[in-house]
Write the structure tokens for this entry.
Amino acid sequence: MSQFNRRRFLARSSMLGALGWSASGWLPLLADQVAAQAKQRRHCILLWMNGGPSQTDTFDMKPGHKNGGTFKEIETDAPGLRFSEHLPGLAKHGKHIAVVRSLSTKEGDHGRGTYLMRTGQRLGGPLRYPAIGASLSKELGDPADAFPNYVSVAPYRAVNQEAFGPGFLGPRHAPLTVASYNRFRSTDNDDDEAEYADLRVNDLQAPLDLDASTIRTRLELWQSLQDDFLTRKGRVGAARAQNTVYERALRMMESSAARAFDLSEESDTVRDAYGRGQFGQGCLMARRLVEQGIAFVEVSLGAFGGGRTWDTHTANFPTVKTLSEELDAGWSTLMTELEERGLLESTTILWMGEFGRTPGINGNSGRDHFPAAWSCVFAGGGIRGGQAYGKTTDDGMKVDDGKVDVGDILATLAQSLGVEPDTENITEIGRPIKIADGSPIKDLLT
Amino acid sequence: MSNRTRLSPILNLAVGICAVVAFGHAAEAHLTAGERSAVTPSTADAFTGVSSDDAKMISLIDKTLSDAWQADAVVPAERSSDAEFLRRAFLDLTGRIPRVSETRTFLDDAAPNKREQLIGDLLERPGHPSHLADVWCRFLLPDTAAVNQIDGSNAFESWMRNRFAENRSYAEIVRELLLATGEPNESGPVLFYTSLELKPEKVAASTSRAFLGIQIQCAQCHNHPFDKWTQNDFWGYAAFFARISPQSTQAGRQGTVRDSTTGEVMLPDSDEVVAPRFLLGKDAIKQNERSRRQLLAEWMTAPENPYFAKAAVNRIWAQLFGHGIIDPPDDMNEANAPRFGLLLDELAGYFASTNYDVRRFYQLLTMTNAYQLSSEHLSENDRPAGLFASMQLKMLTAEQLYNCVSVATCRPYDDVLASVPSSRAKRAMTNRGTFVDKFRAPTGNPTEYRSGIPQALMLLNGKLVDDATDLDRSDILVSLQAPFFTDDERVETLFLATLSRRPSAEMQQNFADYIAACRSEEEKQTALGNILWALLNSAEFAMNH
């Protein structure tokens, strides 16, 4: 557009806006290319359990032992694989699920454990290590996408901010965060009047009091300043990079992919099947994002500070039952819907928290922090389902067979997604750092 | 050139009021009672030019570089415009952009030596030591999860700021840091050791990188792959830090740091004790009544040390030029030989001869022609960074970006150092902290743009810029509502406030036409808000160029 035209355009744009002018011509829109590639890509969904879930009451039950607690075991559709009775939906997907029952780690503090499990490194190292979502999305995504490759739904970051960041990879690999604006959980509202969790992306929409014509005018003004600066300084280096990233952000705001965040497009039947709380709705959002080709999505369950968490030092059983029901609805519906869309085989799911819980039950009917022998769960693409890997002793106190550490878990995750765990990123001081320090568990991989 | 509108005195007054209020607030709060008396408002007259030694160094720098440009047939960029220089000097020396009144005063000043005067003025302001403290803290304290939880980063920063404010010799500052004792919260520099868990190998890696500009930590486990350092060199150096207690403190646990009489380092996976030995030194050190740290500090800061002054001048050079004479600046090694090695030696010698006068060195470099070149580029490779034939485009740090939005919109800083939370983690909970946390990049190359979509969305749609451009809450927009402004003056003021320059005639016309098309006063206000929004989101605003 010539300066003359631009000037005329600037002068007229607000008037045009008021008349309902809505053609979007100021930037080429390429957003739909994103969706077109979705099916060729690999995706990862991390189901993150705040507080540390009890393995003994979910995926590594000890029926008959005094540590076993009050829950019963049920069969899954995979012979020999059994879950808690409060996970009936997942039991129908047993053939796509592999439980690791022999995870043994060394951090029993929420902050340190969260950092360890999410980065694969102990706190106190010489670097800020990236969360696994940042490293994997960097490998799986296309940097040219008009969409961040890493989306985090309702994370509870206060337990350790650093465990949720891109570390030395830099802010470009930070997750786009979806915040939850009301905190209720599905099980609090059983009647039909209940609302759904209100999940929104921070800053995706322009401030509410701006109308469309104002936004358009602003962008036009902005574009003229950018053109002026880039022409004077040369389209080089940081100036060009800044412009490119802004254009991607603006394309995303206008793209159909951004509609993945708008859950009101789904029917109430579907939304209810996932559960109305932030975890269930987050799982639904994860499905919609994977459909748009997003590489890595994480959804958290369990809210510290008022809500229910997996940190069940007291009243373990009613809390775990409630959380299990919420987990079961969201996760099993997610697997069903991914499978229906042919996306389950390209999507790997990992379920874990910062540590497990003591097999022994304390005086408050609770279970305490326990990193020595606990479980995490893989499902979906690249995973040989229908099995439990490793074994704990009858009392659950020790790993009896197949002991693995966090590095092995993250290496397995990377490998299942087709990413070599040895892939190195170079830090600012030139030090090469592997995505995961550990060996993939071969038995778990297809 | 176009016939620029000269603003009426009353306009200067109006915008000046907002500037004075904001600046007064920041300056007051920056200072403790003791410092306040030391800082007097400096005037242009206080700056009397440079000594003949300095003048010689300045010509040496410019001659060396221009010879190289000629040899390589590189056409250097033009000299920067006054506005370009003003913004650059403010950002590099005080960490923020100039206020409207400051910009206008400088641009309208006819004095031929106004750039020199500005440099002298900025170096005397309280913002200068604050900015240096910010730069050096980011460089010295490892940006790790554990360190960010430790209390005491505010004490460290204020220690650093006071040293720079008094313009202490750089060698003295480093000695004080190396010999720090006490508790992190009470004694600023101790945090340096605490943050490295008092581990000899970590302190060795950090001090050699920071103060000697060399990376010997590769030799921790094996002889260095492409440099001369052996494993014994590394551990011999690390042995100087073996006698600090409490030993093996975990980062995050605080304790009193002091010298002890026992403690050794051993080669990894062996029982072989390595005695302290200086790098490049032949013999083991004779232990005497002085502590190992004292011995090291003396060696480190001695004029004969071939690395110490060189590393410092190269680092300051890199901060100002966006690229070191040796680059990356903290990796001097035999495979990374500089084009301007002789110049670097001269600069190091000069720095040592001034008793490591940091302020004078900043003055020296900013007065060169090279520093005052424009940042215009014709293409990606027209002027390779290492030739310094044009200024590099440098991204503002997250802290600078936040501060500059405040300055541009006439808001006071809300993060005055004296009142900030004591650890980086606690700081992340404030408004500014949330913003900074989201943009925080690993320390390193300022010429790289590291942000992504979430950060762009935060600027496009987030609270910071929304508040700054809100018609009722934005201080600058409210002050521009005054009836005596013409629309041209309003547009010009917005440019001065954000980009520190007047708009080109063409842009002025474009924006004026846009405002002229508004049909009501309210629409006009909205239009000004829109212009401010676009300016705050522009690449030009986000950069030091």
Observations:
- Confidence is low (pLDDT under 50) at residues 1-48, 248-252, 414-419 of chain B.
- DSSP finds 27 helices and six strands in chain B.
- Chain B touches chain A through 79 residues (CB under 8 Å).
